[in-house]
Design a protein that fits this description.
The complex is a heterodimer.
Chain A lengths: L16 H18 L26 E2 L36 E9 L10 E6 L24 E5 L5 E7 L4 E3 L5 E3 L2 E6 L8 E6 L10 H4 L4 H5 L4 E2 L10 E4 L2 E2 L16
Parallel strand pairs in A: 2-11, 2-12
Antiparallel strand pairs in A: 2-5, 3-4, 3-8, 6-7, 8-9, 10-11
Chain B lengths: L36 E8 L9 E6 L24 E5 L5 E6 L12 E8 L2 E10 L4 H6 L1 H4 L3 H4 L5 E3 L2 E3 L2 E2 L9 E2 L4
The chains are: A alpha+beta, B mainly beta.
Bound molecules: fe (ii) ion.
Amino acid sequence: MTTQPISTDPDSASASQEQVDGEIAAIAEDYRASGVEETQPRLDYPPYRSSLLRHPTKSLHHADPETIELWAPCFGHRDVHPLEADLTIQHGGEPLGERMKLVGRIVDGDGRPVRNQLVEIWQANAGGRYVHKRDQHPAPIDPNFTGVGRCLTDDDGNYAFTTIKPGPYPWKNHRNAWRPAHIHFSLFGTDFTQRMITQMYFPGDPLFALDPIFQSITDPKARERLVAQYDHSVTTHEWATGYRWDIVLTGSHRTPLETETDED
Amino acid sequence: MADLIATPGQTIGPFYGYALPYEGDNELVPPGRADAIRLHGQVLDGAGAPVPDALLELWQVDADGNVVQQPGSLKRDGWTFTGWGRTSTDDAGHYTFSTLRPGATAPGKAPFFLVTVFGRGVLNRLFTRAYLPEDADALAADPLLTSLPAERRDSCIAAADAHGYRFDIRLQGEAETVFLTYPRH
Ligand SMILES: [Fe+2]
């Protein structure tokens, strides 16, 4: 599809959306033809220019997890204050935008809840601006919104945040590129092999098809797993809309004997 | 039990810097302590250029080879070794941890640090092990190292230096670091 060499400068913004769409479509077509299901993003995904010089070229090496890999760090109430789960109360006033509750449950690959474990989120404000010195696009900073939250999951693996719905924002992957609105999630399991960072998206975003980061997950069913659902049972009268997003980590390698408390 | 399909990962992106780092994140023990060592190095891309916006996490056993299950990594008290820390690379792609030398988990086992790499342009987290270089017999017997082609083994072995160890991470290219995947991934 590409007629000229791809620039390895991730901020060159040299390609058009049409060119990137063509690259995305060609990879999607190859994926459909392969018949082999993929469930995770590709590390080597040229439409996402920043990955060109940063993806391993050799395949990942299979290791049998041992010692430290079979355990995750432990976090507790000493680490995380309950109020850190409310991103709307960190300043003197109310942040602008759509106040929303965001809830979900984290389980491992066997369906067991990930209990009392750390969840970290960060996001842009309602105008699509991060409180980060490298985010220089001219959308307003909201003095009442930082966009960082933490919580611990409860005994059944549930997490809950109160926040503001983030806006989409431009980036320099290609000319006039826009990221679909998203919230970044950092997650731990019971084994360190389950450690992951990902992004949660909102249903029906018109930017999905145009975004190389979202499309680096070549399988449509796998992409759907990153999309939250509007859930009216999560909303609050005259206060907040509500979304639910459940998360599955990879399988644990510890046998139930090694796990202190197991499901009944 | 059900074998559920895992939620996909995504890149950490460029804007985590005001969210994930925290005070004392890379000091698993205070740097002045008598038994503190430095684990440091550079993260490099396929052109050999430093990666100034990578986030690394360190997870390791204590000096006696025990897995630690102590809270307090996010608000360190200066006395409790939690075994876990995180740090961002600086503008020269360099990172530093102040920590303890991990012990052998059993006699004859090769001690290692587990290092996880996140970065803009890195679409999913990368795992690698940084082995301590001293015990040649243990390294020669290690199941992971012996399963690697000889020319790739060194990419997983840290180099001893004056204050501890140096471990560079090459995301791509000739001396590319060995990155790991585990069963059920
Ligand atoms: Fe983002």
